[in-house]
What we know:
Largest sheet: 4 strands, mixed
Oligomer: single chain
Shape: globular
Strand content: 15-25%
Strand order of the largest sheet: 1-4-5-8
Radius of gyration: 21 Å
Order of helices and strands: HHHHHHEEEEEEEEHEEHHHH
Number of strands: 10
Bound molecules: flavin-adenine dinucleotide
Helix content: 40-55%
Number of helices: 11
Amino acid sequence: MRRDVFTEEHELFRAQFRRFAEKEIEPKIAEWNERGMSDRETWRRAGEQGFLGAAAPVEYGGAGGDFLYDAIIMEEMSWIRAHAMMISLHSDIIMPYLITYGSEEQKRRYLPGAISGDILLGIAMTEPGTGSDLANVQTKARRDGDDYVLDGAKTFISNGQIGDLFIVVARTDPNADPPHRGISLILVEADTPGFVRGRKLDKLGLRGQDTSELAFDNCRVPVSNVLGQQGQGFKMLMEKLQQERLCIAVASIASCRRALHDTIEYVRERRAFGQPIARFQNTQFKLAELATEVEIGQAFIDKLLAAHVRGDELVTEVSMAKWWSTDLQKRLTSECVQLHGGYGFMLEYPIAMDYADAAVQSIYAGTNEIMKVIIARRLGLE
Ligand SMILES: Cc1cc2nc3c(=O)[nH]c(=O)nc-3n(C[C@H](O)[C@H](O)[C@H](O)COP(=O)(O)OP(=O)(O)OC[C@H]3O[C@@H](n4cnc5c(N)ncnc54)[C@H](O)[C@@H]3O)c2cc1C
């Protein structure tokens, strides 16, 4: 079905990005997956071509487009399975914090480098003892004159090894009541003394993505590194999570499309009992059902994309899209592995990695259970 959320200009941008991705990204994916990390050179090339911060303001070097340009990048990256290079985390999840809440000085200092690919971004919320219950973060930022001194540990941080600038969620007021009012967002450059990169974690899926532990050991940063207002960190996180969760839903459906496409090709080729397995009614029904769900999901997500670009508040609907599309991705990749038979279990077949990569989608950016907690609360079920 023709999608009407994108204009002709968006589609030209898609063609341009696709050419770039085929030439500069796709050939490197296997090596990145082997190494567990993307490379800075490709980030810089993407920056040069205007593919980082496509929606960032022109005065800092951005393209001044809308979120749909970023959505296109997400879809294309998901289609080629370029999970190692998290452009969307950098441009659509973290950069918006700087754009919306950064002081003029912070924006001038960091945005041009982030847009050119010289400053790679990360966000450090999760801690070994605290994930879903974000208001309970224990990393402390103690005021000392004109500085904050950070102490604590973070885990599962994307871009942990390769990142240059991190938004750190820290407790600036240990006595705040309720506790979430004591949380602030603090910008920490990776070369700050006391900023320690820990282990790069070995994962089931997203093998090319750098996910790491971080520690802060007497890590001193000026008070001017606070993003937005002190004590407003939790509120800012809640405001920006709508876009983060929409990003996951967009990528999820795009990944579903790729897995489905490859499986349809496979079942047409593979023969059993003297005929292509595509001829078995079970194969046809399974794929017909999955294709239906993908189209339904896409229609919902396109509607959300248009509404998000308009600036609508969509916390409930985006939470629905996040859990539903990632749940579909898990079911769909599982069915597609089954339709590949033993080959589906072999890592040389991309569907095997699709299955492993899908597992995390229902966990990060707020688990699917948390999505349902949010929806239920908004239905008045408390
Ligand atoms: C590959 C990867 C990349 C990541 N990147 C980042 C990053 O860049 N920055 C960052 O800060 N974090 C990142 N994370 C962390 C991620 O956001 C957390 O893993 C996630 O929020 C869940 O937290 P947790 O792992 O502590 O699980 P828990 O919070 O311990 O949850 C465990 C289980 O309990 C359930 N549960 C918890 N609370 C409730 C409740 N109220 N009701 C019902 N069920 C509940 C959860 O849904 C889950 O099933 C990443 C994680 C992964 C795996």
